[in-house]
Known about the structure:
The protein has helices at residues 2-11, 22-26, 30-40, 50-55, 76-81, 91-99, 120-124, 148-161, 174-178, 304-311, 315-320; strands at 16-17, 19-20, 44-47, 64-67, 85-88, 105-108, 133-137, 168-170, 187-188, 214-223, 228-229, 235-236, 241-246, 263-266, 269-274, 282-285, 297-300. The strands form 4 sheets. It has a 7-stranded parallel β-sheet with strand order 2-3-4-5-6-7-8. It has a 6-stranded antiparallel barrel with strand order 10-13-16-15-14-17. Helix content is 26%, strand content 20%. It contains 11 helices and 17 strands. The model has no long low-confidence stretch (mean pLDDT 97). The longest helix is centred in the middle third of the chain and has 14 residues, at 148-161. The chain is an alpha/beta fold. It binds pyridoxal-5'-phosphate (PLP). Pyridoxal-5'-phosphate is lined by residues 20, 22, 68, 139, 173-174, 189-193.
Amino acid sequence: MVANWRWLNAQSGGAACGAAVKADGYGLGAREVVRQLAAAGCRDFFVATWAEAAALMPLPAGVALSVLHGVRPEDMAAATSLNARPVLNTSDQVRRWRAAGGGVCDVMIDTGINRLGLAPQDVAAGLLDGLQVDVLMSHLACADEDVEDNDRQRRAFLSLADSVPHRRLSLANSAGICLGADYAFDLTRPGVALYGGIPRAEATGHIRQVARPEAEILQRRLVPAGSSVGYNATWTAARDTEVAILNIGYADGILRGFSGTGHALAGEIALPFIGRVSMDLIAIDVTAAPDLREGDWVAIDYDLPRAAAASGLAQYELLTSLGDRFERVWMD
Length: 332
Ligand SMILES: *Cc1c(COP(=O)(O)O)cnc(C)c1O
């Protein structure tokens, strides 16, 4: 993960490289993600909610945290007491923040994604005048595609930057960083690529896999030709087959879309999932690994682009689905 951040930092050119750690660090454990990236030199972190911000306190020294959902009425107590900045998204949020004293904040401008953010015309009318804005940001809708929308959003962002007070400008997520130096501005905000997601072809060969789920064999059995495995008997043995049952399932985030398409790995040997993925169990064909025994561990193939293709899930979903039953172990 740290190597991925270093690559994204280098690709960000003169811009600082931050880190999106929302959804518990995309499922990997936000506290440890922040600790490691802060030690590597990352200074700007982003979460979605104030509960996520509170869970990261106290922050490592010299680190700043921004809360992307901004300030709803019920967020004001946290927003005025925690060491984090809101990202203001609406006129109401701006008024609410001013009414509470209006300390340093970030602002999201909508330049075409039509998700969160202030409209450029609101901003041009002086809505933000006098506000202490650190990061003025916008978010790209199609950065993982080669479409004109990217440059249109970039130019819209640039054209309004002059009329809005700010310390820093920020536009690029992981895919946006791959679009090149024009998109980096002062600060980039990668998320998925930190955790091994390949947002665009430019990242292939540079971004490394981070999450490597493993499971233990609870039982090994011989399934005779003609017998089936798992719920609804969706797989039937064409010949006598060596099968192992793993202690992992869709409750751990290995979702049912992997049924019949995912596989485990014993070293380089691929061991196909067979039958339905259950809540807590997955059956694999271990014919190719005669030495595997009850109590042995295997990896689940979680190379994100490949697992996304096998399951029909987004690389993002594969990460954020990983469940609480895993022991999260960090290795160098
Ligand atoms: C989640 C998020 C990011 C990170 O996006 P990735 O595609 O995971 O790199 C950056 N900025 C905003 C506003 C986000 O919501």
